[in-house]
Amino acid sequence: MFSSPQALVPGLSPLFGALYARPSQGSTVSPALLLEIAETFSPRFEQHRADLVSVDLRGLDRLFGTPQLVGEEMRRVAASRGVQLHVGIATTRTVATVMAIAQPGLSVVPAGGEAAALAPLSLVLLEQIDAYRPSDRVAPTPVSATVAGMVATIKTWGLRTLGELAALPAADLSARTGRMGLFWQQIARGGDARPLVPTRADERFEGTLELEWPIEGLEPLSFVLTRLLEPLSTRLERADRGAAALQVSLRLIDRTVYARRLEIPAPMRDVRALRTLALLDLEAHPPGTGIDSVTVTIDPTPGRILQHTLFTRPHPTPEQLSTLLARLGALMGEGRIGAAVPVDSHRPGAFAMKPFALDHTAGVGRRSSVAGRQKSIVDSPEPGVRSALRRYRQPVAARVAVADGRPVRVTTDRPNWGGGAVTTAVGPWRTSGEWWEGEAFVSRMSVLSSRPSGVDAGAWDRDEWDVALADGGMYRIFQNRVTSQWFVDAVMD
Amino acid sequence: MLVAERPSLTSSVSADRSSSSARPARPARADRAALLATLAAKRLDRTLTTALPPVDPSDALAVGATAVPAFDASLGGFPRGQLSEIVGARSSGRTSLLMQMLAAATARGELAAVVDALDRFDPASALAAGVDLDRVLWIRGQVMSHPAAARDTNQKALEQAVKALSLVLQAGNFGLVAFDVGEAPADALRRLPFTTWLRVQRMVEGQQAVCVLIGAGPMARSAAGLTVNLTIARPADGRLFDGRLFTGLKVEARVIRARAHRHEDVSVRFETKST
After folding, report:
1. Is A399 an interface residue toward B (CB < 8 Å)?
2. What angle do CA A208, A245, A322 make, to 5 degrees?
3. Degrees (nearest 5) of the Cα angle A245, A249, A253?
4. pTM strictly above 0.80
5. What's the CA gap between A78 and A86, in Å, rounded?
6. How confident is the model at residue B4 (pLDDT cuts 50, 70, 90)?
7. What pLDDT, in 10s, does the model give residues B132-166?
8. Are the Cβ atoms of B111 and A316 closer than 8 angstroms?
9. Closest to B96 (Cβ–Cβ): which among A367, A373, A386?
């Protein structure tokens, strides 16, 4: 898979540089020094061989200016360390590398000019950059062993430059040289055979603190966590990374390791937020004994870029929200906080819960909103205030007097629940569902009335009435048709 | 300055009392009016809480519109950065007004939080009112329904809910925070320390949030910025239902306490429609 220069978007194109230290008169440049120079400019670099390194220069234009200035700065830094470097800069790694090898000094190839830059160069360069292509990763055939022969073959056709090789019809070239020919033609056209694979492994964000004396309880642990997280947060900030997951491993005094892993919903590196999340999790799942050693490991992920606006109210940040949700979860219990979700069911009061999202688009509601400082009016399907219900999640058992098939008096055992004579009653509405679930139907009916509505499944069969009582309240009551028991289901409010 | 002015106030009141012994006693109402006028002249008729600048109802950044046209026309909405109350008996339209406020807040792109102390929130009603449920953080209190255990459990649920309310307000940047204790027993509410509401008021101040308590009666007292009492008017023919359909409520919302004094005794009528 090649990425060609033509596929790159102007302005957003990546920028690569190649540093080539040409051996001269027996003196060679130390590979470590070359890597050190590359690391001065970017953490993403790849060493192809002892004297050739390619560097990802994306973003450096904001620091130095044009690619020309970036290249000059690279050469200046190398010169200050006593190294004479040849630098090639282009939008693909291949072009940058070929130019660094082929031309002395600094060569900057503008976006779109890659083919023209490579066209006059000699085919012999393919042999020189052969080591640049790691054959074990790209092509199953041992291309590097035969590249000299292939170049010789192509030369017998009368071709001398990379431009001529690039201009050959791909189908005919493939018929004569196989995949190897196509591969080198793509190189001649300036395409990259693979993405840059950084030589330096990804930075590991981990910290360990051995405790002189075991600690128990969360309060002393919070200080330990802060001490571990602060340097990790600084390193994350330097690398423009955030924490995707936080793992706290505690070695206990009984020689066991107690580990808790937290998936962080949004990348963050705020020490207080991370510490609070870890502590809240450990509060809910405490270790059994004292702690001998604490290790914190963070899985990094690219940092979050936020664009604030002046025209909408700010939302709580993901850090604030995730901390809030963790605190609320610890206080109220799991499953008691979140966002309600309607479910596809005719069951009265049915709903489901889902985790509250942390990332909301500011200023965009599902309904239309009036911009600016005007008052907003909800654009509901039918304008006006809708009557709402207050649901008794567990229906309240009621005593209902019935005359002529209609409820005439409703009371309950609740001390603060009025009740009284029914002034108006409409109904019944008969609803039932999920009776098709089989033999369990009858047995389940006995517990229907005490089941939290909408949370779980099960059959229901009931007659609903809307009643207005003499105490001023209006209620939705129902009679379980299997047990004939009456319940108050909701208040119209 | 206050210390300097107090003697003159005392002297004027005492002079008034001494003179009253010489001539026929004036009605108590006149005495009160005179005292109030004197306090107003000395600018001593406001407590520290009410001394905050009044809310401009035309400023959308200072008030949160309810999307009830009559309500917004009179009051502009509920003030941001203040503790407000919607009080009333069962079936007085409190929940309908809350749902409308939630719909308006989420339509403006704000996040809302409902601290549902006794777990009475009905998502279907909210959806019918136009609430974007994804933007509403629903915090459900844990309530046992057994009559013998109800009292103590409700108390615990209330205390948990107050803590949850504090956490939400501390997090900040919610557009609307509702604390629903509409079904809570009055004695359980009375057992909450009065300083609870002063503390909540202090947390809300300076925030963009409209913080509203839903209850059967006023709770926050002097900590409240705007207290609206809801009552319903029964239809003359006594018909609340049209055939098999509940027609809705005719709600009268009366301001019984307002930090902005010009809003006191404002009365608004609106109707709810059956879903």
Report:
1. no
2. 115
3. 170
4. no
5. 10
6. very low
7. 999 999 999 887 666 555 555 677 888 899 999 99
8. yes
9. A386
Q: Which two three-digit tokens encode residue A37?
A: 């120079």
- Per DSSP (E only), the strands in A50-103 are 52-56, 86-90
Chain-chain contact of A413 with B147 (C-beta, under 8 angstroms): yes
Contact A264, A244 (CB under 8 A): yes
Which chain B residues touch A449 with a CB distance below 8 Å?
A: none
B242-256 in b/e form (b: 16+ CB < 10 A) is eeeebbbbbbbbbbb
Residue pair A422/A471 in contact by the 8 Å Cβ criterion: no
Question: In A299-368, which residue ranges form alpha helices assigned H by DSSP?
Answer: 318-332
Instruction: Catalogue the E-assigned strands of chain B.
Output: 63-64, 78-79, 83-88, 112-116, 136-140, 176-180, 210-215, 224-232, 241-242, 245-246, 250-258, 267-273
Query: Of B209, B204, B194, B212, which Cα lies nearest the Cα of B253?
Result: B212
CB contact under 8 A, A328 and B133: no
Give the B window 207-236 contacts with A, CB below 8 Å.
208, 232
Contact in structure between A236 and A204 (CB atoms under 8 Å): no
What pairs with residue A97 in β-bridges?
A: none
| Helix runs in A157-270, H state only | 162-167, 170-177, 179-188, 218-238
Comparing A409 with A44, which gets the higher pLDDT? A409
Number of H helices, E strands in chain B: 8, 12
- Tell me which chain A residues have a C-beta less than 8 angstroms from the C-beta of B119: 393
| Contacts A364 to B, Cβ<8 Å | 109
CA distances from A31 to A20, A50, A159, A260 (A): 11, 5, 35, 42
Long-range contacts of A149-154 (CB under 8 A, 24+ apart): A150/A126, A150/A177, A150/A180, A150/A181, A150/A184, A151/A123, A151/A124, A151/A126, A151/A127, A153/A177, A154/A123
Q: How many residues does chain A have?
A: 493
Determine the 3-state secondary structure of B133 from DSSP: helix
Between B149 and A395, the higher pLDDT residue: A395
pLDDT tens-place string over residues B178-192: 999 988 888 888 888
> CB B140 to CB A336 under 8 A?
yes
**Which residue(s) pair with A46 in the sheet?**
A54
| Cα(A249)–Cα(A259) distance, integer angstroms | 4
Minimal C-alpha gap between B200 and chain A (Å) = 17
Tell me if B109 and A338 make a contact (CB, 8 A cut-off): no
Cis omega before residue A428 (within 30°)? yes
**Do residue A338 and residue B138 have CB atoms under 8 angstroms apart?**
yes
Alpha carbon of A246 to those of A261, A283, A293, A460: distances in Å? 6, 16, 16, 45
Whole-number average pLDDT of chain A: 80
Give the largest Cα separation in chain A, rounded.
115
Collect all residues with Cβ–Cβ distance below 8 Å to B206 and sequence separation of at least 6. B81
Nearest to B128 by CA among B82, B159, B96, B175: B96
Confidence of residue A314 (pLDDT cuts 50, 70, 90): confident
Task: Specify whether the backbone of A59 is left (phi greater than 0), alpha (psi in -120 to 50) or beta.
Answer: left
N-terminal to C-terminal alpha carbon distance within chain B:
58
Helix, strand, or coil here: B123?
Answer: helix
Unique residue bearing structure tokens 């605190």? A327
For the record, the structure tokens of A132 come out as 């640049």
Note whether A161 and A102 are within 8 A (CB). Answer: no
Burial class (CB in 10 A: 0-12, 13-18, 19+), A351: buried
Residues of A with Cβ-Cβ distance to B134 under 8 angstroms: 339, 357, 360, 366
Check A426 against B243: CB less than 8 A apart.
yes
In chain B, whose CA is at the least distance from the CA of A413?
B147
* CA-based nearest residue to A321, from A332, A313, A312, A329: A329
pLDDT at residue A108, rounded to an integer: 92
